[in-house]
Amino acid sequence: MSNYIMNVKKELTKDEYGNIHDYLGVIDVNDNFTMNIENKNLINLEMINQIFEENNFVKIKEQINENGSCIIEANKVY
């Protein structure tokens, strides 16, 4: 089992959502993925959820902190 981490520090463009989709495609079954987002306003959480679903990921945790930062943890299930 491997652990993958992605840090988002700027607003994401459509191309970058495509890059996230591609990146998740490399992660294997039962691997862990953590996305740290500096400010939840930088991303579209609905788009991220859709990308997770398309890549067979199950979200384990989504935490939005008082300062607006967001942590999402997910596992690839099949």
Descriptive report:
The protein has 78 residues and is of the alpha+beta class. It has one domain (3-76): Translation initiation factor 3 (IF-3), C-terminal domain (Translation Initiation Factor IF3, 2-Layer Sandwich), CATH 3.30.110. Helix content is 29%, strand content 35%. It has two helices and four strands. A four-stranded mixed β-sheet has the order 1-2-4-3, with helices on one face. α1 links the parallel β1 (3-8) and β2 (32-37). α1 (14-26) packs parallel to α2. It starts with a strand and ends with a strand. The mean pLDDT is 90.
List the helices and strands and how they pair.
Elements lengths: L2 E6 L5 H13 L5 E6 L7 H10 L2 E8 L5 E7 L2
Parallel strand pairs: 1-2
Antiparallel strand pairs: 2-4, 3-4
Helix pairs in contact: 1-2
Provide a quick synopsis of the model.
The protein is an alpha+beta fold. Helices cover 29% and strands 35% of the residues. It is globular, with a radius of gyration of 12 Å.
CATH topology name: Translation Initiation Factor IF3
Overall mean pLDDT stands at 90
* Radius of gyration, whole Å: 12 Å
N/C terminus separation:
13 Å
Number of structural units classed as domains: 1
Strand content: 25-35%
Percent helix: 25-40%
Structural class: alpha+beta
Number of helices: 2
* Strand element count: 4
Biggest sheet layout: 4 strands, mixed
Can you tell me the CATH architecture? Answer: 2-Layer Sandwich
